[in-house]
Write a structure and sequence with these properties.
- The complex is a heterodimer.
- By secondary structure, chain A is an alpha+beta fold.
- In chain A, the strands form 6 sheets. Chain A has a 5-stranded mixed beta sheet. A 4-stranded parallel beta sheet of chain A has the order 6-5-10-11.
- The two termini of chain A are 35 Å apart.
- By secondary structure, chain B is mainly alpha-helical.
- In chain B, helix 1 runs antiparallel to helix 5, helix 5 runs antiparallel to helix 6 and helix 14 packs antiparallel against helix 15.
- Chain B starts with a helix and ends in a 5-residue tail after the last helix.
- The chains are: A alpha+beta, B mainly alpha.
- Chains A and B meet through helix 2, helix 9, strand 6 and strand 8 of A and helix 1, helix 5 and helix 6 of B.
Chain lengths: 476, 312
C-alpha cells in the first residue's frame, strides 16, 4: 500500500478531492496565494508572543517560556460527526461521575465483580479521604478534557479521559481568536460554531455547585494556581481573567471560621468555589503530601464539612487512571445501561502474565505507557524506537510490569499543515472540553486539536514538539 | 482585590520607573562624557553612586570606564537593579497580576520587555547606546500611555501610581543627595564651568533641563535647581509632586474602602515638609533633608505594604 493512503486524511480523500466538511474551505484555499498564507503564519507567531500565550517546559532552563507552534489550517468537523461525538462524550462523562460516586460510597461495581478490587484498593489515585464525602451538587468532574483520536471515516477512539485538571482550553479560545483576526472572510463563508462562551459557561457551572456554606447572592469563585512558574500559568491567569474570578496561590489563603478565605487589601474574604489547578497530592499538606508548599493545610476538612467546593473534586484521578482505562466500556455499560458509543483502544494490562508476554513479543509494534504518566513522558512508541531504546524499555517492563499498559500503534488520522512547500499531512488528536453541572453536561463545540509537526510522528504533545490547530465544528 | 495583586501592581510600576530612571542616568552620564572628555571617569563614578550600586560595582570592577559602567547599569545580570533586571522583575510582576491589567497594558509591558531584551541581548557599545536608550524610553512611554488610556480609575490604578511615585521621589532625592555639595551656597561662589556642568547634569538626569530653562529663563542657580526638583509641584519628577500624588492615591483608597490607614497619616506628615521655602531647607541642611526623605519614603512604602496586606 502507498504510504500516503495508510492513514485517513480528514481533508482529502484518496483521489485528492476535498471531503465534504472541507469543501468550502478548500474552495477558498485554492484561490489563496501560498506566500500570503505563510506570511499569515508568521503573523500568528508574533501575535501569540505579544499576548504572552506561552508555556514553561520543565527541565529546559534555556527557553523557559516557549510558544506552542500554531498552524493556520483549521481542523474541520461536520455537524453530523460532532453530534455523535457529543453523545459519546456525554455518556462517558456521566458514567465517570456515577463511577466516582459509587467507588467512594457503596462500591457496587466492585461487588458486581466488573472491576477488580485490587485495582482500586492498591491504587494511589484512589483517595480514602473521599470515602463517604458528597461533593456539592453531586458533581465530581466539573471539567473534563476527553482525548480522542480518529482512524477512519467513522472511527473515533477515546485515548484518555483526563478527569483531574485537564489543560489546554485557553489554546482553544486563543486559537479561535487568532483565526478570527487573520481570516475574517472565512467565518462569513462557513458556519463555524462559536467557542467563546466557554469562560462564562465555566463560571456558571462552577457557581451552580456552590457549597452548603454559601450564603451570598453570587458565589465567590477563585482559581488556585501553583504559581507563575507552572507550565500552564498562562491558562490559569487567562481563565481567572475571563471568568472575572480571583487568581490565588496557597499563600493568599487561610482558613477562618470554617471557610477558606483569601487575603484581600481589605481583609480576609471567603471563597465558595475553588477551581484548583494543582494536583490532589499537593492540595492539603495536613491530609495528603506533608511536604507540599502549594496547598492549604486543612482545606480537605473544610471541604468535607461543606465549607467550600473544590473543582474537580479530590480523588477523580481514579477514573482516568491508565490501569482502569481498559475497564471503561464495562464502566459505561454498568452505570448507563447502554453500550459505549465511543470505542476504547484495545489495551494490554502488563500486570497480567499473558498480556506481558504478548507485549514483550510485540514491543516494536506497540505503544507502551506508564500507568501514572502524562504528557508523553516515559512512553515508548515501538515503531519509532531504536533497538537500544526497545531493549532498555524491555528491562523496565520486566522489572515493574504493573506500572505499564500497552496499546496497538493507532493509525491516527491526518490533517494538512502549512509547510514551506505547501500543504502536507500530519497526525492529529482532539481534546474537546466538557463542563458538568448538577443537571447538565455541556460540551463546547470545538476543542484543542494537537498536531505532530514532524513528518510521520505520532506524538502530538506540546512538550514533545507538537503544535495546535483551531478546531471548527460546522453548524449545518 | 487580593493583597498579593496590590503588591504586584505596586512593584511592577516601581520596577518600570526604576528601569527608566537608570536609563536616564546613563543618558546624562553619556552626555557629559561626550561634551567633557576630561571629567568623564568622575562623572561615571557619580552615576554609579547615584544609582545606589557603588559597593556592588566596585566589587566587580576597579575602574569607571564607560563600557563597564554602561553595561553594568543596563544589562548585567549580576546587578539586581540593572535596566534588564528591573524589566524582568516588572514583567514578572505583570504576569502575576495579569488579571488586574487591561489587555493593552499587559501587551505594552510584554512588548516593552521583549524589545528591551532584544536590545540588551549583546553588549552595548558607543554606536548602539543611543538606540538602546531610545528603545527603553519609548517602550516605557507606551506602557504609561496604555495605563492612562485604558485602566479604570479604581484601586488597581491607585496601587500602580503609588509604585511609580514612591520610586520616583526616591530617585530624585538620591540624585540630589549625591550632588548636594555642588548645590550648596558656598559652591556657587566658585562659579566654575565645572559647577555649571554638574548642575546641568542634575537636570538631565531627571529629563528636566528644558522645563527648567522654560520656567527660569535660562538662569541656572543651585537654589533654583533645588527649589525646582524639591518643591515645585508643577514638575512631575519633583519630590513635592510625587508625595502629593501618593497622598492623592491614598485618599482615593480611603474613599473606596471607607477606612483611613496609618500610611495616610504618614503621607500627610511628609507632604507638610514641602510647605517651607527652599531657604529654610538649606538652613536646616540640604543633605539632612534629603537623607530624611529617603528614609521616610522607605518607611511609607513598608507601611503601605502592611496596611494593604501585600504579604501574609
Amino acid at each position: 500500500m502507498d504510504k500516503q493512503n495508510r492513514f485517513f486524511d480528514e481533508m482529502f480523500d484518496s483521489a485528492g478531492q476535498a471531503r465534504q466538511p472541507y469543501s468550502r474551505y478548500n474552495d477558498w484555499f485554492q484561490t489563496e496565494d501560498i506566500r500570503h498564507l505563510r506570511r499569515k503564519s508568521e503573523e500568528a507567531e508574533a501575535f501569540f508572543r505579544r499576548i504572552g500565550i506561552t508555556f514553561n517546559v520543565y527541565g529546559q532552563q534555556e527557553a523557559d517560556e516557549r510558544l506552542i507552534p500554531f498552524d493556520v489550517v483549521p481542523r474541520i468537523i461536520s455537524a453530523r460527526e460532532w453530534a455523535r461525538l457529543e453523545d459519546g462524550i456525554a455518556q462517558r462523562v456521566r458514567a465517570i461521575n456515577a463511577f466516582l460516586h459509587d467507588i467512594y460510597h457503596r462500591q457496587e461495581i466492585l461487588r458486581a465483580g466488573r472491576v477488580p478490587v485490587d485495582l482500586i484498593a492498591r491504587n494511589e489515585a484512589f483517595l480514602p479521604q473521599m470515602i463517604g464525602v458528597n461533593p456539592p451538587g453531586g458533581v465530581y468532574t466539573h471539567i473534563v478534557g476527553t482525548d480522542l483520536v480518529r482512524t477512519g471515516e467513522n472511527e473515533f477512539y477515546v485515548l484518555e479521559d483526563n478527569a483531574r485538571t485537564p489543560s489546554g482550553v485557553s489554546y482553544m479560545l486563543e486559537n479561535r481568536e487568532t483565526m478570527l483576526q487573520m481570516f475574517p472572510e472565512l467565518f462569513t463563508r462557513l458556519k463555524v460554531r462559536p467557542v467563546s462562551s466557554y469562560p462564562q459557561n465555566l463560571r456558571r457551572s462552577l457557581s451552580d455547585c456552590a457549597p452548603p456554606a454559601f450564603n451570598g447572592d453570587k458565589p465567590e469563585v477563585a482559581v488556585l494556581t501553583p504559581g507563575i512558574h507552572n507550565s500552564a500559568y498562562f491558562e490559569h491567569a487567562f481563565l481567572a481573567d475571563q471568568m472575572g474570578a480571583e487568581l490565588v496561590e496557597s499563600h493568599d489563603l487561610r482558613i477562618e471560621g470554617g471557610r477558606v478565605c483569601m487575603r484581600t487589601t481589605r481583609g480576609y474574604k471567603a471563597i465558595d468555589v475553588l477551581y484548583r489547578r494543582i494536583d490532589d497530592d499537593y492540595l492539603d499538606p495536613l491530609n495528603f503530601n506533608p511536604n507540599s508548599l502549594l496547598g492549604v493545610p486543612g482545606i480537605m476538612d473544610v471541604y468535607r464539612a461543606g465549607g467550600i467546593t473544590l473543582a474537580n473534586a479530590p480523588g477523580t484521578g481514579i477514573a482516568d487512571d491508565k490501569a482502569l482505562y481498559s475497564y471503561m466500556p464495562d464502566i459505561v455499560e454498568f452505570y448507563t445501561g447502554e453500550k459505549s458509543i465511543l470505542q476504547n483502544v484495545p489495551t494490554w494490562r502488563c500486570s497480567e502474565a499473558d498480556s506481558l508476554k504478548y507485549v514483550l513479543d510485540h514491543l516494536s509494534e506497540l505503544v507502551v505507557k506508564e500507568v501514572h504518566g502524562s504528557g508523553g513522558y516515559g512512553m515508548l512508541v515501538g515503531p519509532a524506537a531504536s533497538k537500544r531504546e526497545l531493549a532498555r524499555f524491555e528491562k523496565k517492563l520486566r522489572a515493574r510490569p504493573g506500572n505499564y499498559i500497552a496499546q496497538p500503534t493507532l493509525a491516527l488520522s491526518t490533517v494538512p499543515i502549512m509547510t514551506k512547500r505547501g500543504l502536507a499531512p500530519r497526525h492529529v488528536d482532539l481534546r474537546p472540553f466538557v463542563l458538568v453541572s448538577p443537571n447538565k453536561v455541556q460540551i463546547t463545540p470545538g476543542g484543542l486539536t494537537r498536531v505532530a509537526l514532524k513528518e510521520g510522528s505520532l506524538v502530538v504533545n506540546s512538550s514533545q514538539g507538537g503544535g495546535t490547530k483551531d478546531t471548527w465544528v460546522l453548524g449545518d | 482585590m487580593l493583597g498579593k495583586t496590590a503588591g504586584g501592581l505596586f512593584w511592577m510600576f516601581r520596577y518600570l520607573e526604576r528601569a527608566e530612571n537608570i536609563a536616564r542616568l546613563v543618558e546624562a552620564g553619556w552626555r557629559i562624557a561626550l561634551t567633557r572628555a576630561g571629567d568623564a571617569e568622575n562623572e561615571w563614578e557619580s552615576v554609579v553612586t547615584t544609582a545606589g550600586m557603588r559597593a556592588a560595582y566596585c566589587a566587580k570592577f576597579d575602574d569607571f570606564d564607560a563600557p563597564h559602567v554602561i553595561n553594568y547599569l543596563l544589562r548585567d545580570p549580576d546587578n539586581a537593579s540593572s535596566v534588564m533586571s528591573a524589566m524582568n522583575a516588572a514583567r514578572s510582576n505583570a504576569r502575576l497580576v495579569r488579571t488586574a491589567l487591561s489587555s493593552e497594558v499587559w501587551e505594552a509591558v510584554n512588548e516593552c520587555w521583549m524589545a528591551v531584551k532584544a536590545a540588551l541581548g549583546r553588549p552595548v557599545t558607543e554606536r548602539t547606546l543611543a538606540d538602546v536608550l531610545s528603545t527603553i524610553r519609548t517602550r516605557s512611554a507606551v506602557v504609561r500611555g496604555a495605563l492612562h488610556g485604558t485602566m479604570l480609575r479604581n484601586e488597581i490604578y491607585n496601587f500602580c501610581r503609588m509604585g511609580t511615585f514612591l520610586e520616583r521621589s526616591d530617585n530624585t532625592a538620591r540624585i540630589l543627595d549625591v550632588k548636594y555639595y555642588v548645590l550648596l551656597p558656598s559652591a556657587s561662589f566658585v562659579g566654575s564651568s565645572m559647577d555649571n556642568a554638574q548642575w546641568e547634569n542634575i537636570l538631565r538626569s531627571v529629563s528636566a533641563e528644558r522645563s527648567f530653562s522654560w520656567l527660569h529663563g535660562g538662569e541656572t542657580t543651585p537654589q533654583g535647581i533645588a527649589q525646582f526638583l524639591i518643591l515645585d509641584r508643577r514638575v512631575p519628577r519633583s519630590m513635592a509632586f510625587c508625595y502629593s500624588k501618593t497622598r492623592e492615591q491614598l485618599a482615593h483608597l480611603e474613599g473606596e474602602y471607607g477606612t483611613r490607614q496609618p500610611s495616610q497619616d504618614m503621607a500627610d506628615r511628609m507632604c507638610q515638609r514641602f510647605n517651607q521655602p527652599i531657604t529654610a531647607i538649606f538652613d536646616e541642611g540640604l543633605h539632612e533633608f534629603l537623607d530624611a526623605s529617603i528614609r521616610d519614603t522607605a518607611a511609607l512604602a513598608s507601611q503601605i505594604e502592611q496596611d494593604f496586606r501585600f504579604y501574609g
